[in-house]
Amino acid sequence: MSKVLLITGASRGIGAETARLAAARGYSLCLNYQHSEAAANELLESLTDGGHRAILFQANVAEESEVAAMYRAIDSEFGRLDGLVNNAGILEQQSDLVEMTPDRWRRVLDINVVGSFLCAREAVRRMSTRSGGDGGAIVNLSSRAADIGGAHEYVDYAASKGAIDAMTIGLAKEVGDQGIRVNAVKPGLIYTDIHAAAGEAGRVDRLKSAVPMQRGGYPAEVAEAILWLLSEASAYTTGSFIDVSGGR
Ligand code: NAP
Asked: What residue owns the CA closest to ligand 1's atom 1?
């Protein structure tokens, strides 16, 4: 029986690449998206045409009722869950903190933090050996921004990823004896559309000379770390972080 994996924000970027790699490694998939319906459908078709088992579910991860409906769909389609990749996340326009509004902070924290919490909670309820599950793995998408701080660009985003780091450590400790491992990856500058959405499509190329490896990273390179943390190859690894940042 193949393992079942939920990837949030799977329509584009790191999430979509993680879906391709996970399918190739034999996972059955629930692919979540919010707005990019055409891209999500295209991904679904390419996976199912290749013989992989996958479903698509549109949900805003920050909305409790939509997350609950998504998990009900997983329950009825697959009847089990083995892993969650908490990947959905947003960046707002580059700005100094002094220009930011409370609404902006709430939007960023709502999607990046509350969304990850809601998805993790439902995953634990299903995977915990205490509630009859078989255990599993959660991989959260943090960011090197949590350590660097996002000055003059996205202190709000960096703070949201700092919260993800704390949740990763705390939840790993809570569920370590319930068969569930919780880890995070911390990408650096990765070529995806998230930078264009934040107002600077060429951001990775502008900053790449500050990366020790002198280049930006690719979604497939992040996906490899995610898949390792999901796999049995990392069976004794929990509450830990992998930087995928070229040394930055
Ligand atoms: P991206 O290309 O902008 O893709 C973001 C994905 O998240 C999309 O599939 C989007 O879905 C989904 N999403 C956004 N808000 C959502 C919501 N409320 N509910 C459900 N889905 C939602 O971003 P990315 O660069 O691949 O980033 C993926 C993760 O890696 C994020 O957590 C990000 O913070 C983190 N990260 C990225 C970088 C980087 O340099 N790219 C660096 C560090 C960390 P729709 O398009 O369908 O709305």
From this structure: 194
Tens of pLDDT along 133-154? 999 999 999 999 999 999 999 9
Q: Which residues span the domain enclosing 27?
A: 4-243
Catalogue the active-site residues.
157
DSSP calls for the chain:
---EEEESS-SSHHHHHHHHHHHHTT-EEEEEESS-HHHHHHHHHHHHHTT--EEEEE--TT-HHHHHHHHHHHHHHHS---EEEE----------GGG--HHHHHHHHIIIIIHHHHHHHHHHHHH-GGGT---EEEEEE--THHHH--TTT-HHHHHHHHHHHHHHHHHHHHHGGGTEEEEEEEE-SB-STHHHHTT-TTHHHHHGGGSTTSS-B-HHHHHHHHHHHHSGGGTT--S-EEEESTT-
Tens-place pLDDT, residues 150-179: 999 999 999 999 999 999 999 999 999 999
* CATH for 180: 3.40.50.720
Q: Which of 18, 84, 194 to mutate to test the pocket of ligand 1 (most atoms within 8 A of CB)?
A: 194
